[in-house]
Design a protein that fits this description.
The chain is built from seven helices and eight strands. The chain is an alpha/beta fold and 271 residues long. The radius of gyration is 17 Å and the shape is globular.
C-alpha cells in the first residue's frame, strides 16, 4: 500500500479578504498529534500503525508566488520519486494549482474532486490571476483537469457560472444536496478540501464562512464512496484566528486521518 507524506504550505499571500491561513498547517498538526484524540480513521486503519505515514513539516515558503510554486512542485516530485502520495495542508487555496500541476506532470490530466463553498474559477480576482479565488481556472486552462467535480458550492455568481460552463466544471450545489448526487470518479484522482465547504457551525475557522454548507457526515460520505487511486490531496483555508475552541483544527486533523485511510484503501497508481 502507498506511504503518505504530509507537508504544510504556510502561505496566505494570495488571500483576497483576510490573511491568516498561513498559520493553518501548524495548528492542524498540533491537533493531529494531540493526546485529545487518537490515530484511528472511520475506515478502520490507524495512522502510523496500519498506514505508512510521514510528516515532513512545513516547507520554507517565501511569499514570492513564483518561487513558492516551484518549491511546491519540487517537493511533490521528490515525494513521487520515493513512491509516496503527497497530502498537503494549506495555506490558502492558491497552493492547489502547483500541487495539481506537479501531480499532472506525473499522471497526465487528473479527475479532481473539489470541496468548497466557492468554485474558485475567477479569471482573476482583484487583478490577481493567482488569487485563492482562481486556482481552478488556472488548472483548467493548463489542461490539468480531465474532469472537475465541485461539491458544496453555494456562492455561484454570474462570472463563475460562465467560467464553469467554459471549462466544463460539474457543480454539485448545496441547494437540494444529497451525497448520491456526487459521482464516483475514475483515477487518477486528486482531492482538494477547502474547509469553508463545510457548514460554519462545524468549521468556523475560515476567512470566508458561508452558511448552508456540508455537514461533516455528508463530507465523509462523499469521500468514502470514492474508490479510485488517489495521487494527491490537500486541506486548505484553515484560519486559526477565526476558530472557536479549536474545533476546525480538530476537524482538519480528522480529515488528514480520513484522507490517509482512503488513499491507503484505494491503492497505488504508478506515475
Amino acid at each position: 500500500m502507498p506511504a503518505i507524506r504530509l507537508f504544510g504550505l504556510p502561505t496566505d499571500i494570495n488571500s483576497s479578504f483576510e490573511r491568516g491561513a498561513a498559520a493553518g498547517p501548524a495548528a492542524i498538526r498540533v491537533q493531529l498529534w494531540s493526546d485529545r484524540g487518537n490515530m484511528a480513521s472511520e475506515l478502520g486503519p490507524e495512522l502510523g500503525t496500519d498506514i505508512a505515514f510521514t510528516d515532513d513539516g512545513d516547507l520554507a515558503l517565501t511569499e514570492d508566488t513564483r518561487r513558492d510554486d516551484a518549491m511546491i512542485r519540487r517537493h511533490v516530485a521528490l515525494v513521487r520519486e520515493d513512491g509516496e502520495i503527497p497530502l498537503a495542508l494549506g495555506g490558502d487555496h492558491a497552493v492547489t494549482f502547483p500541487l495539481v500541476e506537479a501531480a499532472a506532470a506525473c499522471f497526465g490530466p487528473l479527475n479532481i474532486l473539489h470541496i468548497d463553498a466557492h468554485p474558485d474559477l475567477y479569471d482573476d480576482f482583484g487583478g490577481n490571476p493567482r488569487s485563492h479565488a482562481s486556482p481552478f481556472a488556472r488548472i483548467c486552462e493548463a489542461g490539468h483537469a480531465a474532469r472537475l467535480v465541485q461539491v458544496g458550492i453555494r456562492t455561484l455568481n454570474r462570472h463563475c457560472r460562465e467560467q464553469a460552463a467554459r471549462f466544463g466544471a460539474e457543480i454539485v450545489p448545496m441547494a437540494g444536496f444529497i451525497p448520491d448526487a456526487v459521482p464516483v470518479l475514475d483515477g487518477p484522482l486528486y482531492i482538494s478540501i477547502d474547509l469553508d465547504g463545510i457548514d460554519p457551525s462545524a468549521a468556523p475557522g475560515v476567512a470566508h464562512p458561508e452558511p448552508g454548507g456540508l455537514t461533516v457526515r455528508e463530507l465523509l460520505g462523499v469521500l468514502h464512496k470514492q474508490t479510485a487511486p488517489i495521487v494527491g490531496a490537500d486541506i486548505v483555508e484553515y484560519h486559526p484566528g477565526r476558530d472557536v475552541g479549536d474545533v476546525t483544527a480538530i476537524l482538519g486533523a480528522k480529515l488528514v486521518r480520513e484522507l490517509a485511510a482512503l488513499i491507503d484503501r484505494n491503492g497505488h497508481l504508478e506515475g
